[in-house]
Amino acid sequence: MESALSGSSSVSYSLFSSSSQQPHRSFFKTSHIFEFKLRTRKMEHTHLKLATPVNCSHPGLTQEVEKNKMNVVIETEMRQDLFEEIKHRFLSFKRNTYMKNFEHFQRLSDAQSPKFLVISCADSRVCPSNVLGFQPGEAFLVRNIANLVVPFEKGPSETQAALQFSVNTLEVENIFIIGHSCCGGIRALMSMQDEKPSCFITNWVINGKTAKIRTKAAASNLNFDQQCRHCEKESLDNSLLNLLTYPWIEEKVKKGSLAIHGGYYDFVDGTFEKWTLDYEASCVKEDTRRLAVKNREFWS
Ligand SMILES: [Zn+2]
């Protein structure tokens, strides 16, 4: 234990000493919070790696320390660059969008009246504002892994809170659930072996179990990737039907003051498919559960 501790202090000293061998002067910038965090993390990492007794004067270890120093410099500068980039994007947004539409943003400070509730996957590649151009004030947006809507009786979730607020308070006229190609959440669902959730992710995606069962029944002859693609759409349809289990949603859909739409964004092909739930021809009851759609469009 003693040697492990002394080993780590030796490395820590070496990491932060002002050796002439420092590869880059920016290593000594000390004011940046991220740099500090990175240094701390790196030091902890090094400590873990040296948890067994080692000879600290070993040349291999010196090389390892130098390599770590380089990694710290590179990671720190990359993170600083990221925030520089984000700062420029914000300033560009302020100059080109916010200032040019100042009155619109002032009106938004009083209230919002979006026409859409959009439910999409949290995946970084499929941001609806980016892909479909939703502007500030146009869409109330909730994102979760695999764009799932659980049935009413499943109890509270952040998606259900967004449903209640947007439908009953904001009175949106459209709920738009958007699925996508290469969905990691659906892949996780399809990869589960025994249907027993073992972590937060599987505990969430198991909510799409019905879609998985239907996929296995309808597409067992397809390879795994094709089955995942099938399940992405099956799960989407399942979520569309689940919306009708919410009494206050069904009531509005029945009256015609609220419409339910599905969308599938394929970012591999660069296409978008959109459809609308046909309430009269759909049924959410367990034994006769079926989704009917209308106004299907394919954008390519
Ligand atoms: Zn996804």
UniProtKB/TrEMBL annotation:
SUPFAM superfamilies: beta-carbonic anhydrase, cab. Binds 1 zinc ion per subunit. Keywords: Lyase, Metal-binding, S-nitrosylation, Zinc. GO terms for biological process: carbon utilization. InterPro entries: Beta_CA_cladeB, Carbonic_anhydrase, Carbonic_anhydrase_CS, Carbonic_anhydrase_sf. It comes from the Eukaryota. This is Carbonic anhydrase. It comes from Cucurbita maxima (Pumpkin). The gene is LOC111482607.
